[in-house]
């Protein structure tokens, strides 16, 4: 009769997403297209817009001296992940009059990196009474 016993051990492989999630801080309010679509309405006061979106990056005026607020946000995210691991095998074979033992191992390293940049530009145009008369936005990711 032959009895084989094997012991396998491996060390932590963590995906890049898991590494990124460990260091990313999503606790604060984010300026998103969804926020603009859901919250900003024609006829809102500039004070209400500032309460929702915060202070603009730039304030200009058009040819009729009406204010135009511009929000220009850029986000860059760099993620690097590396993993190393190994497997050890211990085998014991019993049978007949004797026995045998053997072992082997494997270890390796791997890594990956990625970089993503996102931009969001929001333009809010006000009328003579400082109420929103029009707004537009553009988002890109590369």
What topology emerges from the helices and strands here?
Layout (H helix, E strand, L loop, with lengths): L2 E8 L5 H8 L9 H7 L6 H8 L4 E4 L5 E29 L2 E29 L5 E10 L1
Antiparallel strand pairs: 1-3, 2-3, 3-4, 4-5
> How many DSSP-defined strands?
5
Gyration radius from CA atoms, angstroms: 30 Å
Subunit organisation of the chains: single chain
Distance N to C terminus: 62 Å
Task: Please provide the ordered H/E string of secondary-structure elements.
Answer: EHHHEEEE
Shape category: rod-shaped
Which stretches are low in confidence, meaning pLDDT under 50 for 5 or more residues running? 1-11
Brief sketch in words of this structure:
The chain has 142 residues and is an alpha+beta fold. It is built from 3 helices and 5 strands; from the N terminus they run E-H-H-H-E-E-E-E.
What does this structure look like?
This protein is α+β, with helices and mostly antiparallel strands and 142 residues long. It is built from three helices and five strands. Strands 1, 2, 3, 4 and 5 form a five-stranded antiparallel beta sheet that branches.
Structural key phrases:
alpha+beta, five-stranded antiparallel β-sheet
């Amino acid at each position: 009769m032959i009895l084989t016993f094997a012991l396998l051990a491996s060390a932590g492989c963590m995906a890049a997403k898991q590494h990124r999630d460990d260091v990313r801080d999503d606790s604060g309010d984010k300026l998103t297209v969804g926020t603009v679509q859901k919250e900003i309405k024609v006829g809102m006061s500039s004070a209400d817009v500032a309460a929702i979106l915060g202070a603009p990056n730039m304030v200009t005026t058009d040819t009729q001296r009406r204010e135009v607020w511009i929000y220009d946000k850029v986000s860059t995210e760099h993620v690097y992940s590396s993993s190393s691991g190994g497997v050890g095998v211990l085998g014991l074979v019993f049978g007949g009059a004797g026995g045998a033992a053997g072992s082997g191992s494997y270890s390796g390293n791997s890594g990956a990196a990625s970089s993503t940049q996102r931009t969001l530009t929001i333009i809010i145009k006000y009328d003579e009474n400082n109420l929103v008369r029009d707004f537009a936005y553009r988002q890109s990711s590369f």
